Fold these 2 entries.
Entry 1:
Amino acid sequence: MSYTKILAVGLLAAFLAACQGSPSVPDPEPTDTTYGDGGASTGGMGDGGMGEGEYLADPSAGELGMVIYFDFDSSEVRQQDKELVSRHARQIGDNMRISVRLEGHADERGSREYNIGLGERRSQAVRQMLMIQGASAAQISTVSFGEERPASFGNSEADYAQNRRVEIKYTN
Amino acid sequence: MLNRLKFSLAILVFVAGSSYAELVIDVQGVAQPTPVAIVPFGWEGSGAEIPLDVAAVITSDLRRSGRFEPIPESKMLQKPTSGADVDFQDWSFVGVEAVVVGTVTQTGENDFSLQFQLFDVFGRRQLVGYRMPASRGTMRAAAHRAADMIYEKLTGIKGVFGTKVAYVTAMEQGQKRLYSLIVSDQDGANEHTIMESNDPIMSPAWSPDSRQLAYVSFEDNKSSIFVQTLRSGNRFKVSSKPGINGAPAFSPDGRQLVVTLGGVDGNLDIYTLDITSRQTRQLTTHRAIDTEGTWSPDGRYIYFTSDRAGGPQVYRVSAKGGTPERITFEGSYNARPRLSPDGTRLAVVHNDRGDYRIAVMDLAEKNLLVLSTGRQDESPSFAPNSDILIYATRVGRNGVLETVSADGLIRQKMASGRGDVREPVWSPFPRF
Amino acid sequence: MFRDSYNIIPTSLAVLLHVLILGSMIVAYDLARPTPFTPLAVQATLVTEIPEVTPPRVVEPEPEPEPVVEEPKPEPDNSEELRRQAEEEKRRLDALLEKERLEKIRQQEEAERKQKEKAEAERKQKEKAEAERKQKEKAEAERKQKEKEEAERKKREEEEKERKRIEAEKQREEDIRRQREENERLRREMEAEQRRDEIDAESERLAAIDSGQLAVYQAMIQQRIYRNWKVPASAQDDLFCSVRVRQARGGHVLGVSFVRCNGDEAVKRSIEAAIFGSSPLPDPPEPNLFDPNILLNLTKQQ
């Protein structure tokens, strides 16, 4: 990597780090209401969607797919996705300053917290594979949204297939 | 002489025969709501209008329970407001089994007295009567209290009309989604937003004194567990360890939570967490997904979901720690256990031939009864009288709340105009 | 044909027993009609305390201040001056005396005049008082007259009311009497019916049962009760209640008594409501199928 690129990455990282807001707890409501509003203000970057601001891939790597899909009731990385995971692993492993967050998801069937577990299992499967292939544990964090952030809102099998996934988000 | 003897003997035979005669008739009745009359309350005070239509609140409560059919005002032949004016003949003619009459009397600038009496029409007697002080602001709660007393007198079951429910809603806001944690009266009135976020909110849980809610929030793109005091809106984070923090539930003494922690390696396990000291104690160690912990009402056990046997089933472990034992054996998927407050039954999300439905298992009999009829039913929660469950079902794309009686016979949809509603939890009985 | 085995004492005892039983069943009595309704006092949940009243404080008046007396100063001596002053004094006194005398005369005249005026005023006063008195008397008499009329009117009203009350009372007694007579008549009618052609009735009855009419009658009552019975949700699956119903001819339900019932209060209330709500029960297709006693066996559909 050229010196300029490292500088650019560093500056952007600093910028992004500063922008990650934390929720503020508001003052209590006046006494004539029963409930205060513990509104969590969302951090500027913390909308959690497909935030383009967070994603920064190495342009030299070309277009890398950022989503890995899973079969029903499975947390095994499919054969056809293993190559993709390898390329991510190499990219991450090559640069200790890169961090990724693996966001695991499940389809909506069944109970919610158990689905958090299923999503986490999938994130962990990808994480293990990345670590085996060169990424270090310190560079990878996982989170699971279970069924809470579906990519597709219907209830057909095709929708469910879209939701059983892990999204790779580069965080700096 | 002989004829007279014949005659008297014939009488004897006839009398003997007919004194044992009795028409025996078998009737097999059908369960139906009991017809009752809630008469509009009288009003004595300044101002033309009664501060609250108390009769309407009681009528709505009793009707929604599914056990009563209050008759419309148009069918009432008379509209007494006190016991002395009740004419039982009239009411038996209308066909109701019980009548409620009452008044609201103004006793001060902002003070009132609510009085009601419940009468048994065919027994021709008063069953219960009370007088309660109320302010303008607490009038609705007083009406619910009256409904509770009437309900309990007529059915033998403690009423829950003064309790609350908490639930999460999700609404589209352009490109983003707005998640809200909401508390309302059990009839949907008095909605208050407790927390709002563009990141998901999950798993609300009531503290035993009804003053706090624990919940999971995904703010900052990670899961954290918060405990928030309702009256003040103040909240504090009780768990935000690396990895998953989820599925909080209060202990019966309110001092601990059972939570799910995943850690860096993502191995979900059950922990107890002391709210004051934040100290945790691990209860499960299996590499399976162990989550959705809940305390038994006597504080002795923690029930949870585990897929250590392949698919999710319900297990329980001593709250002091030990070896978990399996509880559910029927079907391939039983998750999200919740115990009834009287400790006798267990509600689960159960896969019933492909559909996810709410089922209830008697812990003694061990038989599983499927209560709901949807395809994506989830999040069952018992009312504090153990007689009703609330859960989320789907209508089209949106989640909708439904209640069902514990025997499965009475089902009611809760009106909702709030988009996608999920994860309802019923509050405990309020502690005054 | 009974000559050989005829035995008078046990037989008559048996007859007596049956007559007593029959007689007691014929007399109308209430089985399940409780005491008249008295509204119970609503239980108060709050008792207010009466605040104590403190008596007002009595304030002592302040003592009056003592008056202060001053001593007079002594005068200087001067005799010539004194003599002149005495002459002066004498002249002054004479003038005064004259003045007094004139004054006295004037006063006397004044007094006489006043006296005359007073007498006049008194006379006028007397006249006025007299007129007023007469006026008062007149008004009084009128008022009394009115009162008297009013009292009379009231009295008439009262009498009228009383008369009406007595009338109503009489009417009510009349109604009660008629009702009693009616009941008496009904009872006698029932007795007469039972006594009339009992053997023929019995055989007709057997014929009716054979022809299925009894089943029709049972079904009619069953339908009516079934339609009116709202089984509460709390009723257990193995609910079984056996209830005796007494009916008069025409179907009017006279009484309900539970022989056994494993249901709760709500269930019992619903059964009572169903039975009384079904009154009057349907008439049988054949009059002699009528039975004053009905045994209802109530269960719950699964």
Entry 2:
Amino acid sequence: MLGATALALLASAGMHARHEATAPTRGVGAGGGGGAGAGAEDRPVDFAREVLPILASNCFRCHGGVREMAGLNLADHARVTTPLKSGRTAVVAGDSDASELLARIATDDANRRMPPEGTPLSPAEVRVIERWIQDGAAWGTHWSFLPRSEPAAPAVDRAAWIARPLDRFVLARLEAAGLAPAPEADRATLARRVALDLTGIPPDAALREAFLSDARPDAYERFVDALLASPAYGERFARVWMDLGRYADTQGYEKDNRRDIWAWRDWVIEALNADMPYDQFAVRMLAGDMIEGSTDADRLATAFHRNTLTNTEGGTDNEEFRMAAVFDRVSTTWQSFLGVTFQCVQCHGHPYDPFSHREYFSFLAYLNQTEDADRDDDHPRLEVERAGVKTSAPILRELAAESRRKTHLLARGSLTSPQEEVSPAVPAALGAVRGDVQPADRLGMARWVAGADNPLFARVAANRAWELLFGRGIVETSEDFGVMGSGASDQALLDHLAGVLVARGFSTKALLREIVLSATYRQSSVASAEALARDPDNRLWSRAPRVRLEAEQIRDTALAVSGLLSRKMGGPPVMPPQPDGVWQVVYSGDAWKTSEGEDRYRRAIYTFLRRSSPYPSFIAFDATSRETCTVRRVRTNTPLAALVMLNDPVYLEAAQALAVSVRMHSDDAVAVRAMLERALGRAAHDGDVARLVTMVASERARYAGRDDVARTLAGRAAEGSTDLARDAALVAAANVILNLDEFLTKS
Amino acid sequence: MQPIDPTHSLSAQTRRTFLGSLAGGAAAFSLGGIALSDLLAREARAADGGVDAANPLAPRAPHFAARAKSVIYIHLAGSPSQLELLDYKPALAKFNGTPCPDEYLKGEKFAFIKGHPTLLAPQHAFSRAGKAGLWTSELLPHFRTIEDEVCVINTMTTDQFNHAPAQLLLHTGESRFGAASFGSWVGYGLGSETRDLPAFVVLVSGDKTPDAGKSVWGSGFLPSVYQGVQCRASGDPVLYVKDPDGMLRETRRATIDAIADLGRAGFARHGDRETESRIAQYELAYRMQMAVPEAMDLARESKATLEEYGAQAGTPSLANSCLLARRLVERGVRFVQLYDWGWDGHGTGPNDDLLTQLPRKCREMDQPVAALIRDLRRRGLLDETLVIWGGEFGRTPVAEFRDGNKNFLGRDHHPHAFTMWMAGGGVKAGTVYGETDELGYRIARDPVRVKDFQATVLHLLGLDHLRLGYMHAGLNHRLTGVQGDAKIVRGLLA
């Protein structure tokens, strides 16, 4: 147990909302900094930038959309200025003396003071509230719910550094902090980084060599364009949509029976490779069945929302689980396209964002008219052929006019408490709908979600692109662009990128290209002492990030550098080796049947995912079981992940193959150097080579005269071996290399 | 204060959000291990929110004095019949075969029963046991000997009547997927007392994993460092813990050293402290390779102990799990979750009925569970170890007779009332809490909702269930739910 320091911290940490809600990075708008004391008194208080963060982190827990204690919901403008049950009014515009809110936060009387627990508001915070009320208590909207505008390009000193327009935004903040950008990364590092980012695997040898020896000024652009044109691009970014769309090869719940829906996965890969404009990509997934002249491919796209769980357990109420699926579709739609946490509005008003309980059900009404009804056979389905295999996938299909459902508001989200009927409508907080006419149906809703007027749609997509390339979004909480999210570390940069996406006709490839060609992206990841001191967490992008690879990238990269990776695309999911006994299926004889031939070595995205028992080595690297929409994987670093890399037969096999590829070099140094260079994609450091040569020598001696053990470890490297002990030692060295921090990291 | 290795680490990129998400305020930080000059200052900053992101499993002080340090939770997946084990209802014998009174069935929904069901007598005899004279089934001869250590709760109640949602509710606080499990919450709140073993270990017996799958020990929205680690009786005790065939132990040591040396050389070039953390993870993995097999090796127990539990090394069994649970708790594991599958009892055949299957499962369970309590008591561990026993719901006082089949006797799922018991770690021993009605259908007094039970267990561990929260998807999630209306059941506390 810890000593006095920790106990003191415990005591002082308090338990009030300010501690649970205040992310240390809270920055609202380009200026960052949540307001208090931030500005001079001569300009009016900005509600959204200065007041809202104070209310959000101190008050909403009790006086938000969930608890509304004393009848007060400070997230709801109307309720703030009307008299409360007590007869008092929280805010009387222009009259701070008559405003109960100010009285309660400013009082010295601990019995009356708000918040009742934890630290009182600082005098500066109280002053912000007072000035705001005095100025007329103008309400404002949280930045991300307001329309985008093209941000003005800031002035910078070091304009020569700028490669793309986005660099100007980054550079302005670096210069304001007195920092210079890091130098450009060397070509080999850049080649590995950008290939992993755009295709999920290191570059093919030929492409890499061509780039490294290309003296033309646009060599890097050509390299990037080749990567974007590679089919591996779609396989890499489809991973993201598999998480967002909670794709799995089983139905979930207790029986978790198999479900054929892989054709949708292949549709996503194809659409991404064809660079289908992102707005159309979204509309097709939400309502491809309803667009005029829709094709089978458009209908297949709607399987996105058929990845919801199906409960086939006896005695279950199909309507209950049909509704559970619809709730999930509402939540997933908002999470994945709009970056808003909507799930909580199912039961009550949003705790802090301006969405009402009623608006939730009005939105749900759009998704409540499809034929599917939690049936074991996942009806309705569409017959399609993908990768030369005939299959059928569950899809969305709108009910016929005569059998349409009525949607009721459900008190506390409970099926047993239906209230008044609601008609379909989108929430008001994201701005007026065009022509004041609510979208009529699911297709109209989809077009509203993906419309250029929607303040969130392009921002969320641009942020996701940044997050995938830099390891952290400009809005770090990419799942929450609302009041309680982390805010944007640089709103101007985000809006600029969102503007690029829209201006390029929602071409995702164009946006990615813009970013990876930037000087910001091309920086070295080596942190200068100055950068470490002034930007320790790389909030200013003063260098390229070092980010651990995703679960899928780790598998694919190990197989690629060892020459084992199959590039076969699409088709039914495969079952690469996993330990015996991981699948213990309760109700059926279904079993993990290890795939044969090249299907053992397919890219990770094709691995069978059973929700109740996902592939264990992926879980160790933070993949999820895909029961619900995953916007952001939290990276962890655990001994279990180390055990996977050290001992999983897949990685041992990769080590054996890597050893085979170099053992013809009789000089250990040459062999080790070759393995390092293949695995890391850069020239090996002499010190690293020397250290591994020492290890090869010591382990070779250890295995000398123990041919049986050596043969076992060497595996395929034992075939035709003339020196089993050396081959075993080389496999051990390859095992080391595949476990290096640098191998597991993008830098 | 022992220096603590930086054993588990969130990457720096997620640190802010992670800290920002912390609700409650269990705060601690560790300074051991890492030799970076700027680390001290940065760790001090990290500590202002709570969990140290570089070492999220560092032991943390509870909110208040704890009664229990660790938990052994024995879950009987499928749910045994409380009416044949510990909730004695002679009225059922009296009215055996008569139609269930209408007032019970109004609005009632069964998982399988169709039509108007009839009451079913207890199928096994009861008699009193222990100093307090608790009514106990003849199926539990060993349990009778430890009854003075136990607090029986006959008035557990849930709102889920299918296995998977009911298991999820009990173990994650939500009937749907995606929430964090009990052991994950406890690891998040208290950290780990062991450096060589996982903080949250799961042992599965009965041939199958629980109906809700591995989600019942998942970390849900909590960082995955808090998920349960399944230790297995056959194959590797922890997945991938065993070196590949042909890898000599000395060679494994040599590889770990080389990984560390090359990692440090890289660190000298780029200065990314995540590298240091990763080196520490490999060192811990190496220690786990020794510690896990040692902890899981029942051959190290005496013959007498093995016999007392009825344990036999090599095959998964509840007896083995019970003995392993004691070994793990002894070694500082915080939360040991046992799942034993096979307790469903619909009466559709000899594998799920009250006359063959239930006695068979009781024979497998009764002796080792009693042995566990005695063993913990002997070793002085019972006072600081909370032992929990029960299924995910109860069984109906009416017979099922699925599809008219009357060859076997069984009961359907019953959410309204069921039995659990607790022992050790601060619970009131030798008592029965609560009372069901004459037929055992509904609760007559002192209901214990699932969230009340969870709040009470957290309380015994020194954790305030309202303060143990985590911001996710716009809500301050708690094991006991976002509404915050769970009650600590004082009547269960010593």
